[in-house]
């Protein structure tokens, strides 16, 4: 009897200890070498695996999926009056009628309806997006995107805000519309407020409330500027810093919970929800690494293509500063194929883009270790040091997006080389590449100062010129042409239109697509898929910011050689 009693006690103690260990494992996150960073995403616990939750982004089960950092908690001038009003409304009109779960549910539904009314009546969203003319019947087919939605993919929405309260509510409305299509557990919203000095902080409070009520996972974060002295700010470095911060939840969810997103949607300015869905379809159909919309700004009574600092056609040339109503021979892309496809409203290949709202495949980029970066040898004009001389072939000090594009081309070339290595000995492969070498001329543009034509988002861009490119550099030998390497699939979808405050989205749509939305006889996959992919150009127009001074710092232009083989040189050895 005594032995049996002791055995039962030992068994109970063992069960208690095992249960405690299981609970500890299930409710605690696993430490990692990167815990010094801001980590709110908890690692998988035992109960996560046992339960097998239907949705990996279920905010009701995982509270850490909704977080807010860096909130400005300073007392507002009329904060006490606002609080008193809220308390009075709650005590007199809300609380007395909540008598049980049923009425509480009705209250939530009422709040949801109020949110939808508030957002749908703001700006362009409700009044114009559903009725805007688009080619190929995009808006007329009720179930045009059912196949996309039925795949149950996860999407990461990134927004970087810097004193841009004039369209944040519209962006929030677009997110709400995407949530209605995909469901709240299919999106994660990362909203970064970078040193805003307008009412952005208040509007992020609104965003937090809306996303919380809808059950959408989010991280809203406010950070201060990199430097208090505007003269010491280097805009490309700030740009890279902001984007990488906005992507932190993407990496944390992958590292700590093994969650992979199908696409990253970077919201910029204002873009209609259907245009975003269309761009995702273009991305899927072409297995594209990046697909950009087109960024238009109103300038002197007409619309011009805006984000020319970050966009280059497949020949490496800048887009023309063309009007939305321009004739086919004056369209933004300068290459013949791109211009022809643009005129038919079809996606076309580019060397680099980031014109407005764009979609990135993280499997080909962020999950491969590519992040945003900037040149490091710029000059700080706030110091007394003399301006350093730079070699003609020095790296281009352009935008962080341009660095991202070049890193993407290099990554694709590496993947191709790795596959060749698996089939052929490295020495034989290298000899074969060098046998295909050719001469290439690298032209350079004169170093002209940027007068900063402040138009839309493009007041960081050089003015366009149709003057022939002057050759002042002689010739440079490229040992291996870029056309031999695997291409990066970067596209522009001209039907995904981005606008800004004060721009008539309706008039722009009429300028670009007419009144009938003609389809040029193209249907099915033909309107989405590219049959042929070009290699990277052997040179490109470099518009660079060599010194500090913020976004409006003077920029210069030149045309350097671009050699993927040189970038791969160390890898090939």
From TrEMBL:
GO molecular function, a single term: glycosyltransferase activity
Biased composition (Basic and acidic residues): 432-447
Keywords per UniProt: Glycosyltransferase, Signal, Transferase
Region entry Disordered, spans: 416-475, 544-566
Keyword Transferase: yes
Signal peptide extent: 1-28
Protein name: Cryptococcal mannosyltransferase 1-domain-containing protein
Organism: Lactarius akahatsu
């Amino acid at each position: 009897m005594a032995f049996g009693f002791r055995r039962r006690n030992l068994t109970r103690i063992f069960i208690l200890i095992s249960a405690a260990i299981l609970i500890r494992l299930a409710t605690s996150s696993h430490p990692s070498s990167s815990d010094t960073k801001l980590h709110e995403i908890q690692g998988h616990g035992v109960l996560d695996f046992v339960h097998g939750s239907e949705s990996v982004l279920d905010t009701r089960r995982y509270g850490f999926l909704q977080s807010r950092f860096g909130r400005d908690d300073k007392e507002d001038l009329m904060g006490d009056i606002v609080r008193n009003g809220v308390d009075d409304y709650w005590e007199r009109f809300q609380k007395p009628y909540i008598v049980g779960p049923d009425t509480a549910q009705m209250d939530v539904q009422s709040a949801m309806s109020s949110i939808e009314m508030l957002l749908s009546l703001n700006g362009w969203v409700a009044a114009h997006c559903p009725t805007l003319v688009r080619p190929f019947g995009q808006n007329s087919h009720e179930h045009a995107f059912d196949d996309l939605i039925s795949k149950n993919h996860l999407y990461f929405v990134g927004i970087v805000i810097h004193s841009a309260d004039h369209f944040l509510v519209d962006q929030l409305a677009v997110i709400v519309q995407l949530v209605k299509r995909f469901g709240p557990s299919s999106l994660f919203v990362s909203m970064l407020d970078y040193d805003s000095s307008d009412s952005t902080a208040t509007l992020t409070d609104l965003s937090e409330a809306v996303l919380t009520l809808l059950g959408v996972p989010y991280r809203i974060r406010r950070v201060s500027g990199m430097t208090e002295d505007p003269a010491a700010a280097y805009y490309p470095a700030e740009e890279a810093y902001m984007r990488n911060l906005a992507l932190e939840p993407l990496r944390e969810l992958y590292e700590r919970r093994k969650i992979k997103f199908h696409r990253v949607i970077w919201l910029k300015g204002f873009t209609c929800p259907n245009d975003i869905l269309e761009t995702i379809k273009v991305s899927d159909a072409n297995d594209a690494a990046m697909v950009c919309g087109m960024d238009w700004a109103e300038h002197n009574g007409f619309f011009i293509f805006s984000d020319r600092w970050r966009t280059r056609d497949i020949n490496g040339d800048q887009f023309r500063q063309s009007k939305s109503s321009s004739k086919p021979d004056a369209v933004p892309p300068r290459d013949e194929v791109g211009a022809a496809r643009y005129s038919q409203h079809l996606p076309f290949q580019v060397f680099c883009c980031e014109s407005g709202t764009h979609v990135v495949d993280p499997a080909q980029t962020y999950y491969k270790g590519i992040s945003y970066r900037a040149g490091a040898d710029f000059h700080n004009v706030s110091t007394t040091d003399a301006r350093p001389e730079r070699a003609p072939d020095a790296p281009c000090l352009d935008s962080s997006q341009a660095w991202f594009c070049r890193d993407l081309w290099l990554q694709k070339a590496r993947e191709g080389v790795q596959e060749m290595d698996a089939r052929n000995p490295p020495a034989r492969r290298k000899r074969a590449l060098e046998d295909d070498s050719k001469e290439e001329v690298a032209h350079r543009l004169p170093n002209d100062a940027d007068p900063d034509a402040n138009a839309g988002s493009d007041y960081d861009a050089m003015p366009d010129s149709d003057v022939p490119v002057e050759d002042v550099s002689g010739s440079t030998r490229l040992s291996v042409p870029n056309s031999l390497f695997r291409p990066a699939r970067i596209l522009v979808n001209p039907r995904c239109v981005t606008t800004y405050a004060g721009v008539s989205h309706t008039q722009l749509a009429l300028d670009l697509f007419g009144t009938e939305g003609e389809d040029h006889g193209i249907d099915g996959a033909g309107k989405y898929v590219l049959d042929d992919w070009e290699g990277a150009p052997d040179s490109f127009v470099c518009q660079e910011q060599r010194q500090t001074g913020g976004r409006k710092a003077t920029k210069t232009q030149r045309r350097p050689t671009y050699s993927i083989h040189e970038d791969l040189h160390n890898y090939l050895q």
